[in-house]
Amino acid sequence: MTLEHTALEIEDEGDRAVAAVGGLAETLLWGGPSGGQVVDLHGETLSPRWRELAAAARELGLPEGRGLPLDAFTAELATTLTAAEAEERWAVLARRIDEIRRRRGRFNFGAGQAWHDGMFAADGVLTRIEAATTDLALRPGLGPSCPPTSGGTSTGWSPTPGRSPSSGASRCRTSTG
Question: pTM for the whole thing?
Answer without folding.
Answer: 0.45
